[in-house]
Every structure is written in structure tokens, then in C-alpha cells.
Amino acid sequence: MTEVQIWQWGLVIASSLVLFFLSPWAKDTNQFFKAVQKKKAPNTFMLMGSLIISWIFAKSITNAANLGLDFGIVGGVAYAGYYLSFAVAGVVIYKMRLHGKYTSIHHFLSSKFGKSAVTIFSILIAFRLFNEVWSNTMVIGSYFGDMGTSPYYWSILVFTGLTLSYVLKGGMSSSIFTDVVQMGLFSVLLAVILFTIFGNDNAIDTTEVLNSGVWSFETGLNLLFAALLQSFSYPFHDPVLTDRGFISSPKVTLKSFLWASVLGATCIILFSIIGVYAQSQGMQGQAAVQVGKAFGTLFLLVINFIMITSAASTLDSTFSSFSKLLALDLNLGNTLKFGRWSMVVIAVLGTVPVFLDAEILSATTISGTMVIGLTPVFLFWKDNASKVSFHLSVFIGLLFGFLLIFNWFPDDLIFTTGKYANLLWINFWGILCCLFVYIIPTWIKK
């Protein structure tokens, strides 16, 4: 075991133990599922911090750094486009709560589209949560050893177990409380990284960063426009985000989501500067790892600790959201015991793919395309759409998702070139088709 790995083990164990002892103990279901502490819901700052850090997960900041390496600052801005999701979800949920008096996404769907819609939607988000577990822990494993080695597997098992232990204490209360701590830590570590990059002997300056990319479709704009298009459906299949839209007052929620949209995007762009620096130095491979190695053990540990912090925040949020999905949204058992056992189940099931050598899917591309059918469902939530509208739109969205996965989309309908061109145009045509089939049944009724 190398010196870096020894320190990494120490950071994982020490940080998890600190969070375990700091986490509140939930004594009732309101504390466990809705983060109510002393009869108070989370305030704007807590909710905003929780939203940002739960979305700045291990693979997203890895992607941001790599896109900075590939496309310069344009890559970082492109990936930050997904953070429009917070603003979209914030405004829609605010209006749904204020004017529709809905208490959750499931309440809205069951009221408007019936039980079958709730079932389909629940399968989609359960699959999303399942993927979140293994795809984030595999990033952590890669910092301890190569895929398939004992250190790789042991680090994943220990990390998952330690994260599970502290979130079992308080559920959503633990998740939001520790998110705020992790967000503070992330901010400090990011500041250290940027200070080092701009202050070393081979430093780059702000002008170099701003001029590091080309604003063309081939070099990042394909991804930017795809991200912006997906932002109108993507947030609604992520219960980690939407659960936080119903626990504080509508006004506090809206402010938190709007601030999270701006500050979350800023964090992603700043982190992509690691990739921009790697590009300026002619580095290749995983940008964050290569820059970390270039600056020595201490800097590498800082980067690794950011990964650990962000992965833990996503993982604990995933456990608490899955627990709420089963206990409250699907009404399978509104008890602390059921909630805690649900977390254990998703932790175990979500870790299984790690041992099957699964590839780390990009949560913001394929799964984002699979759910574009939710676009009209939530954007036109006030309209009197029929039940069949929901099913047609969701089905068409899934169909376009499969066209992306298997690369079956006709080239004649792709009007730009370069990486992510197929992603952009499949989403463009897919959303148009979803809107069309969503509206057709209403027209026929008239």
C-alpha cells in the first residue's frame, strides 16, 4: 500500500466517523423522511448547500475536469448547463405547491394521471437511484486501486458501509446536515486547488482560462445545448433533488433552488479549470488525477478528498431518497424501521454491479435522454392532459433513449458534427416528438 493510499484510508475513515458522531438521531418519521428538526424545516442556506453538494458528485466533477481538458473552459460551461435543472425544478415545484397544493411529485402524478403513471415513474427513479450507488462508489474505488483488485473492492465496501452508518441515524436529517458540512469542506478544498493552480511556477492566468476553448458545436456547444434541453425533464426524475423541493416553505424552496442553480454551475466551471490547466501542460488521461500527481502527494490528497466528500454526499442522499420513495411516496411502510431497512437494501443492491465490472454510465447523458418524455408532463402540469398523454410521452422518451444507446438514430437528422452531436439532436427531435404525442390526445378529445 502506497503512502497516498494510507492517507486516503485515513481520510475516508476519519471523515465518516466525524459525520457519524455529528449526525442527528431521528426519533420520529418527520425527522427521518422530511428533515424536520425542533419543528423547523431546513432554511434557505441549508437547503441550497444540500442541493449543490448532492449534485456535485464524484463522477460529475471528474467529468467537469475531463471536459476542461478536452474543450477548455467551454467544456466546463457546457457541463454546467445541467444546473439550469435547479431553476426549472424550483419554479415548477413552487407553482405546483402554491397553485396546485401538491405535497410531492407522486401526489401530483397520482392525482392527474393515476396509479399506472406512479408505477412507471417510480421504476424510472428507482433505477436512477440504483445507478447512483455503484457509479459513484466505482469512482472512489478507482482512487484506491485498479478495477478488479482487492484495494478497489475493499475501498468501495468500506466507503459504502461508513456512509450508510451515519445516514441510518437520521435519514433525511442526517443527509441535509452532513451535506452542509460537506459543502463547506468542498468550498475550502476547491479554493486550495485553484490557489495552487494559479499560483505555481507553471501557472495559467485568467486570460488563458477564458481563451482556452473554441465556442463551436464540435468543441463543446453540442453538449451545452443538449444539457439545456435535458434540464426541462432531467431534474424531475432525480428524487434527491425533488425531495428537497417539498420539505421547506415554497418561498424558501424557490430561493434555494435558484441560488443552487447559479452557485452549482459556478462550482462546476471552477472545477473544470483543473482540466484547462492539464490541457495547457499537455497532459493526457484523467485530468484530476494527472494534475494531482504533477503537484505532489498533498495536492493529490486534496483532490481525492474532494471526490470522497462529493461521493459521500450523493450516496447518503440516494439512501434517504430511496427510503422515502418506498415508505412515503409508495406508502409501503411509514416507520423508522422500514425506512432504515430500505437504506440497507439499496446499499446492498446498488453495490452488486461493482462486482460485475459494470461501466460507469454518464448519469447526465443516457439516463437524461431516457426521461425526456417528462418534459411536457411537468412544464404543462396545469393543463388538462389525459392519462394516455403521460404514457405516450414517457414511452417516446424511452424509445429515443434506446436509439442513443444503440446508435440507431439516422445521421440525416444530425445537423452538427463532433462529439455529442448525436446526443444533442436525439434530444432535440425526441423532445419535439414527446411534446407532439402529449398534446395529440387532448386535441382529439376537443
TrEMBL record:
Gene Ontology terms describing biological process: sodium ion transport
Topological category with respect to the lipid bilayer: Multi-pass membrane protein
Record keywords, A-Z: Cell membrane, Ion transport, Membrane, Sodium, Sodium transport, Symport, Transmembrane, Transmembrane helix, Transport
Main subcellular location of this protein, as a coarse class: membrane
Transmembrane regions: 6-25, 45-65, 71-93, 113-131, 151-168, 180-199, 219-236, 257-278, 298-317, 362-381, 388-409, 424-444
Keyword Nucleus listed: no
Cellular compartments annotated: Cell membrane
Any one GO MF annotation of this record: symporter activity
Catalytic activity: L-proline(in) + Na(+)(in) = L-proline(out) + Na(+)(out)
PROSITE patterns (UniProt xref): NA_SOLUT_SYMP_3
Keyword Iron on entry: no
Superkingdom field: Bacteria
Matching InterPro entries: Na/Glc_symporter_sf (IPR038377), Na/solute_symporter (IPR001734), Sodium:Solute_Symporter (IPR050277)
GO terms under cellular component: plasma membrane
Family statement drawn from the similarity comment of this UniProt entry: Belongs to the sodium:solute symporter (SSF) (TC 2.A.21) family.
PANTHER family: SODIUM/PROLINE SYMPORTER-RELATED (PTHR48086), SODIUM_PROLINE SYMPORTER (PTHR48086:SF3)
Protein name as catalogued: Na+/proline symporter
